Amino acid sequence: MTSSGSNYSSSSGKYCFDSRDFEASEFDAASFVTAAKEVSSLEVLRDHLRCYQMDLREELYQVINRDLADYLNLSSQLSGVEAEVLEIRAPLEEMATHVHETRDFAASKRQALLAQLRQRGVLQSRKATLVKRVRFLNTLADVEMLLGMPGARSGGNPGATNTNTTLRDVGEAVDVAQLTKHCEVLERLSQAWITLIMDLHCFPDTEEEDDMPTASSMGLRLLRVEKSLLKHLAATLRTVICPENLTISLSCPAESTQVGKDDKEESQQVSPKMNIDGLRHCLRAFVVLGRGDEAEKQTSRLLMLPFIDLNFTQGRLDGGFRGSCSGLASIYAACIIHVQQNLRQILVVGEECAFSSSASSSASPKRGLDLLCNSVWRPIYQALCARLGSIFAPGIASILHANYVTSMAFLNDLATLTGSQCTAALHAHLQAHTITKEFHSRWNLPVYFHLRFSEVSSSIDRALAEAAGGLLLVPADETGTGGNLTASPTTVIGAARKASRTLPEAIVTPFPKNRKEDAISAQFHHPIFVTVWHALLGLWEPDVFLPLLTTRLFKLTLQIVGRFNLWLEEMFDIVEQQQTTGAAAGGSRKEGLGGNELRHFVRADTPDDIVNVSWDAWLFCQEAAREQLERQIVHAVRRQRPSTVTEGAEKGAAAAAAATASDVQVIVREGLAEALKPFEGLVRRGWQAIHFHVVAQCVTVLQAVRGITATYRMTNKRAPEWASPYVSKILDPLRAVEPDVAGKIPPYALEPPGWKVEVLEAVLSHYLEATRELLNSVEQMEDALKKRKQRTGKPLGATGEGGERPVRALSDSEKIKLQLLLDVVAFAEEMRQAAAVDDPITSCGCYVQLLQTVGAARHFLGRDDVKVTLPAAMQAFFAS
């Protein structure tokens, strides 16, 4: 009703409030009045509330009037119902009483039946326990009877007497069928014993009223049965693996150390044939009993220990030279042959029986028998530790490496003895075995690495020290300043090269027996690069590299590269120091450009040593050298991996190995690239030294520029008609260095404008400075002569025979300027020939400045006493 009124009121909009506010669960009158006052006064609100109340009352009346007829009809229909209800009440109550009685009776019967069922279940359980106990006792009695234990009584198993007779007669000569039957019975007895162990819980812990034996007493009987069963199994296993007609050779001939593939195949044949079925039954019995260690110990005691006692001796290990361990390979080869001839079939059957039927069905089965590790490898390891412990001594790195590699190869050979189908899994198991981990821990590989580290680092340090020794022994030059601080770049690096050439073989190459010419070392010109290169490759040779030291050896490789880079940086620092010291000394003497400021660096020899070092450094950091070193490292890592993956190996393992190899290659590539990157900067520093050396020698010839003044000043010589002789000699050092750098120029030096043009620019810069200096001195002289003329009033200059001055004759200063012009013009042809510059005017900016500096003398060319004509290119230049 309220909802209807609210909807009507809100829809009509006749009130100053929303009628739905009254329907709120938490209606607040004060808040309602406050909100209504915002839109109307209190008097209007009161009137609207009264109207709303009247509307609600009208709606209520309408609802009552609508349902009043139905209400009156319902009252008339209900009259007389009470009497009818009273009539059927008594039968219903009687029926309810009978239902309750029936329910109580059924519940009592149900309880009685449940009690009987519980009692019957107890009886059945007791009967089953008694049956199980009786079967347990009968089976135990039969087993004791079969094993011939004292006081044993038959448990009612027919045929036990015949089997018992077979067990007792096993020690005598029996045929193969009887022996196999005997082994089969022992396996069944082992299974029966396991069943008895599982049913032992059916006996009470304490003695009961019916004098039933307890679980402890039955356990003691089972222990005696197990002991007797193990005794029979041991005797039977001895008969199976060591028959009387089988002769085991405990020693191997000397030629057995070199075993070929055909010899190995022949050695795998055993004569006479072993009883494989009987062996299989025996080993299964040991595994079922959980006493595989007993079979392992007996096999080791019967077949391995006698051979080890005879062959694992210090004398055979020394091989004629004490401490050399040269006989270790022959001992291992003899072991492989012995195992192949006498234990291979036992190992194969042992792998078949390694897991019991119950263990093989589980997710992670546990080995019950491990003949390879415990019967073969364990006694060998113990003999190595006890008798041949000298193989682990880290005194000589080469001997330790040979012993380690030979031992690891022996382990790989052991994993192949059971056939190719299970080689990969067996190798993984062999490597994960506790004995193998102990074996690996006995090798002092960190000590071996430090021996190799000392050998390589000391050899390289001696080589670098000997090469650097030449830097400190350079004799003083003609200036009297001794020591390496006055040695030229050529002399510095040349002394290092000569010192390296005189190094002993053991110092130049840390691994002389592995030194072989390769594509990279054949391109090196400086011996120190060959030394370092062979040292880097030698770390990854088969007689040095070990897989477990891959990380350390790679770190050492990067350290050698870094050490060599520092050495080259120090050498180039010396070169740069000479350049800086020489330039400073020349500037302090104020002898002018072209004087003694570059004399400290000028040598008659060519900078072929700097070229060779720079070129070798360029080769050292190139892609070819990095890829060869990368291949050497990756090949070494892959080569030392066990080759035990066969056709039966899983594809997932092969894919994982390939992924690992790819990761190694990426790491090696990135590490080498980062380590070799600084050598590019060394190459640039070397070419800067070459550039300075050539420029210094070229600038020395420019001293002759100052001699032009002495040629024409007050000598009355004729005007020059050709260039000075020194012009053809300025670029002789550049021509002389070309044969040395031929084929040894890095690509960046050939980029435009090219290294020759850069040398020309530097020489032209000095040439321009010398020319300007000479012209300044000429101008100063002319000014001085003019002032003198003004003071004396006499004409200056050359005079003829009659004392009169020649007509239109050139002055000394003009002759000097003309000579400079002719020299600069002739130098263009020298640049074309020496630097292969087609047009010096367009190629060299400094040359244009030089022409502009001496261009004023071109006006003298039109005089009668000057018989010189400029080339067309020069005329065009000056005309423009």
Descriptive account of the structure:
With 880 residues, the chain is mostly helical. It is built from 35 helices and no strands. Helix 4 packs antiparallel against helix 6 and helix 6 (176-198) packs parallel to helix 9.
Specify the overall morphology. Answer: flat
Query: How far apart, in Å, are the first and last alpha carbons?
Result: 115 Å
Helix and strand composition category: mainly alpha
- Strand element count: 0
Radius of gyration based on Cα positions: 56 Å
User: Could you name the ranges where pLDDT drops below 50 across 5 or more consecutive residues?
Assistant: 1-11, 158-166, 253-272, 470-509, 587-606, 642-653
- Give the integer mean of the pLDDT values: 77
Question: What is the overall number of helices?
Answer: 35
The helix fraction, in percent, is: 55-70%
The fraction of residues in strands falls at under 5%
Major beta sheet, specifics?
none
Question: Mind sketching the topology for me?
Answer:
Layout: H1 2-12, H2 29-37, H3 42-77, H4 81-147, H5 160-168, H6 176-198, H7 215-241, H8 261-267, H9 276-289, H10 292-311, H11 314-318, H12 328-342, H13 344-352, H14 357-360, H15 371-386, H16 397-415, H17 423-432, H18 434-441, H19 445-472, H20 489-501, H21 505-508, H22 527-538, H23 550-589, H24 608-620, H25 623-639, H26 651-676, H27 678-701, H28 707-712, H29 732-741, H30 747-750, H31 755-792, H32 812-835, H33 840-843, H34 845-854, H35 872-879
